[in-house]
Amino acid sequence: MGKKNKDGKKSKSGKKKDHGEYTLADISSALTQAARSMRTELTRNLTASGLYAGQDGVILALAEHDGLPAGSLAHKLGVKAPTMTRTIGRMEAQGFVERRADSEDARLTKVYLTETGRNTVTQIAASAAHCDERATRGFSDKDIRSLVRLLKAIDGNLHSEEPLEEDEI
Q1: DSSP labels, 46-96
Q2: 51: which of 93, 98, 111, 147 is 20 to 30 A away, CA to CA?
Q3: CA dihedral 106, 109, 111, 114 (to 10 degrees)
């Protein structure tokens, strides 16, 4: 059995890493796993309201700006248009949203929250708050501010158009 460090955690070498031993190579896997765990916890919390993974984002986007075309929703949420079309269809069948022809251009269909959909906004916010509290248990306010700032910086870097130099790859 591998050795454990003072925190009782093991590294791949059998030794557990302490906070100072993490490297750039640890970022992708740690961030991906944390995102999966957050999504799983949020989905678990939303199950009572009848929502499935990803539907909360649609409701929150429409709560912010009701009456968006499916393509705009897809772009805003970072998913492909066919995925958004399927999600909207499922949500329409569940009674959370409805599709209507645009009043100015009947060729354009827009998505609107129903009363049922609007009623879930509070549940989504409460579920997200519970998930955030659980995920940051033991963090100071300063830790949370730093974490959010760093995650936003990572997101911004990944969305930038500036490619890495040849020698950086």
Answers
A1: HGGGT--TTHHHHHHHHHHS-SEEHHHHHHHHT--HHHHHHHHHHHHHHTS
A2: 147
A3: 50
Residue 147: phi and psi, rounded to 5, are -60, -50
Q: Which among 116, 61, 108, 107 is positioned nearest to 84, based on CA atoms? A: 61
Question: 50-132 maps to which CATH number?
Answer: 1.10.10.10
Question: Which residue, 45, 37, 5, 36, is CA-closest to 22?
Answer: 5
Question: pTM value?
Answer: 0.73
Burial class (CB in 10 A: 0-12, 13-18, 19+), 21: exposed
Which letter does DSSP use for residue 8 in this model? Answer: S
Tokens of 133: 């509290």
